[in-house]
Amino acid sequence: MAQQRKTGLGKGLSALLNDGDDLRQESNERSASTEYESQNSARSGVTGSIGHVNISEIEINPFQPRTDFDATALEELAESIKLQGLIQPITVRKISSNSYQLISGERRLRASKLAGLTSIPAYIRTADDQQMLEMALIENIQRENLNAIEVALSFQRMIDECNLRQDELGERVSKNRSTVTNYLRLLKLPPSIQASIRDNQISMGHARALISVPEVEKQLYIHQEILSKGLSVRKVEELVRSLQEQKPPTSKKKANEHSFQYRKIEDDLATKFATRVKLNVNADKKKGSIQIPFNSEDDLNRILELLDW
């Protein structure tokens, strides 16, 4: 009896241990199978999957709202990718058997190319053109290093091309409607002021103060004062209040209006000819001359070409 109990107990332990080994083997096989299927799914481009996609098979998103990428920042990201790999996958949509279109992550894609990668981790999604545009714009807006004009242009595109109202746009980008409105109003400023915002010569605070000025001529005048004197936002707000509160005599008001108009003409001509242009106007405002200086014979020829001479 004792011998039988020992033999039976031994068989029970052996069976239990063997079952454990079988279970582990089955688990490992199932895990390996899942990983293999996942890799094959990514390679075959099954939507909703994540895996490595050949960089040569990825087309740039034609709806990408941003075309300016800082070269130094790209080099730094490329160095990071060389050391650690790309941590955050890009997002693409499959458009043929061996072709994908980028939805978001162009900066990461460019840096990966610089780093010498031949494939890149990617989420594979299904999206139509409008969805692609909306996703690209939203991803672009969420970047921290966008200037205010780039944000405003992205907002305007979402309204125009995705048929969104301002309140719907605010919900998409997690911003209240007044914030969206303030950005969109930047696009009503003269091009020279928009360029200064884009180039970080003046801040969003300066821009908000300028927006409150209804007259374009005064906006241009204040803008020039900011650039030439380095005025702070508070100083600009004081200047705006001062100009808005002024009630000069009619003749002086007309003189100021003429002055603003002439300054705008000078600015527009200076932009066209890439040189300082001076208007000389006589006292009765009926006659005058335009001076376009040149620094060399080549410079003169350049100006003459612009005049179709």
From TrEMBL:
<protein>
    <submittedName>
        <fullName>ParB/RepB/Spo0J family partition protein</fullName>
    </submittedName>
</protein>
<dbReference type="InterPro" id="IPR003115">
    <property type="entry name" value="ParB_N"/>
</dbReference>
<dbReference type="Pfam" id="PF23552">
    <property type="entry name" value="ParB_C"/>
</dbReference>
<feature type="region of interest" description="Disordered">
    <location>
        <begin position="1"/>
        <end position="48"/>
    </location>
</feature>
<dbReference type="InterPro" id="IPR041468">
    <property type="entry name" value="HTH_ParB/Spo0J"/>
</dbReference>
<dbReference type="Pfam" id="PF17762">
    <property type="entry name" value="HTH_ParB"/>
</dbReference>
<feature type="domain" description="ParB-like N-terminal">
    <location>
        <begin position="51"/>
        <end position="141"/>
    </location>
</feature>
<dbReference type="Pfam" id="PF02195">
    <property type="entry name" value="ParB_N"/>
</dbReference>
<keyword id="KW-0159">Chromosome partition</keyword>
<keyword id="KW-0238">DNA-binding</keyword>
<dbReference type="InterPro" id="IPR004437">
    <property type="entry name" value="ParB/RepB/Spo0J"/>
</dbReference>
<dbReference type="InterPro" id="IPR050336">
    <property type="entry name" value="Chromosome_partition/occlusion"/>
</dbReference>
<dbReference type="InterPro" id="IPR057240">
    <property type="entry name" value="ParB_dimer_C"/>
</dbReference>
<dbReference type="InterPro" id="IPR036086">
    <property type="entry name" value="ParB/Sulfiredoxin_sf"/>
</dbReference>
<feature type="compositionally biased region" description="Polar residues">
    <location>
        <begin position="30"/>
        <end position="47"/>
    </location>
</feature>
<comment type="similarity">
    <text>Belongs to the ParB family.</text>
</comment>
